[in-house]
Amino acid sequence: MNLDEYRQAWKEDEAQMNITFDSDLLSKEVLRSHQSFQSMIYWRDFREVGVSLVMIPLWLLLGSMMSLPWTWYLTIPALIWIAAFIFVDRSRHPQRPSHPGEPLLFYAKESLEQTEHQIWLLRNIFWWYLLPFCISIMAFFVNVAWNSSDGLLGFSLLSGIGAIFLYVIYSAVYRLNQTAVTEQLEPRRDDLQRLIDSLERETDDENAGDIMELVAAISESESGCGACSGWLNWAENWNRLVPSWQTATAIILPTLAGALCGWYSGTQLQIPEMGPTLFQVIVGAVIPFEIVFFSICWSSSKKQKKIQVARDEEAASKPEDRIKTTSSDNGIRLPKAPALVILVLVIFLGVMAFVAIGAFFLHMKEDLNAHNAQVIKRSFHCTNRV
C-alpha cells in the first residue's frame, strides 16, 4: 500500500479500517523530495556560476571590439562576485547527500534547514545578486551619457532612460523571485515545520493521517519549486516552449527579417536620427523576436494550464497515481536542439541589447562632437572675415 492509498483509506473510512503507520514509506518519500530539492538547488547554482564565468571573456571581447569606455568592464567584478558568493555560500551551507535508513524526523529537519536558507537567499537577492549589476551597468550608462551630452539636460535625460531600463528589468526579476518564495518555498517550509511538530509528538491514530497529508503536500510543493528553478523542469519548460524546429523557425525567421530591415535602414536609408547601423540591426531583431517569443510563451502557458487541470481531475479520480507521477522520471535532461538554439539566441540578444545602447550613446557623442566642430569652424571663419 503506497502513500496515497493510506490517505484515501483514511478519508473514506477512518473508523472502520485498521491501518498500520508505515514510517519507512513516509521516510522514503521525504528523502526523495529532499534529494530532488537538493538537485534543483545544485543545478541552479551550477547555471549561475557557469554563465558568470562564460560571460567574463565575452564581456572583455565585446568591450575590446566596440572600444567601449572603462565603465563597461565594471560588470566583470560583478560577475566574479556572483560566482564567488555562490561558491562560498555552498561551502558554508553544504548540501550533504542524505542516505536511506535515517528516521523521518531527520530528513524533515534537514530539508527544513535548506528550505529556510533558500528563502533567505531569495529574500535578499537584491543585495547579493541584483545590486552589483545595477551599480556596474548604471555606471556605464552614466559614463556614456556624460560623454555623449553637452549639457545637464541631455545628461539627465540619457541617464534617466538608462535608470528606467534597469528598474523595469531588475524589478521584474526581483518580483519573480519573491513570488517563488511566497507561493512555493514558504508553503513548503510551513508544511515541513508542521510535519516536524507532529513527529515530535507521539505518533498515534489521531495525527497519523495529518502526517500523511503533510508528506504528500511536501512532495507536491517540491515539484512546484522544481518547475520554477530546477534543472530538470527548467529543461522541460524550454522543450515545451520550443518543441520542434518548426517553432524555432517561427521565432528565428522574424528575428532575421527584423535584423535585415535594421541593416537596410542603417546602410541604405542612412537616417542619422535612427542611430548607428549596429543599433538599428539589434533593435530590428529584438522587436519581432519579443513579439513572437512571448506570444509562444503565452500560448504554451494557456495550453499547460488546461493540461494541469485535466491532470488534477484525473488525480482526484485516481489518487493512487498521484505520488507515483511526481516520484517517477527524475533523470537528468537537457534542452533539445531547437530549444537550445532559441536559448542561445535569447542570451545573445540580451547581451547585444547592452552593446546596442552603448553604440547608440557613442553615436550621439560623435554627432555632438561633429556639430560642435562645425560650430567652432563657422565661428572661426566669421572671426576671420571680421
UniProtKB/TrEMBL annotation:
Segments crossing the lipid bilayer: 46-64, 70-88, 126-146, 152-170, 248-266, 278-298, 340-362
Sections of the chain in a coiled coil: 182-209
Record protein name field: Uncharacterized protein
Residues spanning the signal sequence: none
Keywords, sorted A to Z: Coiled coil, Membrane, Transmembrane, Transmembrane helix
Organism for this UniProt entry: Thalassoglobus neptunius
Keyword Cell wall biogenesis/degradation attributed: no
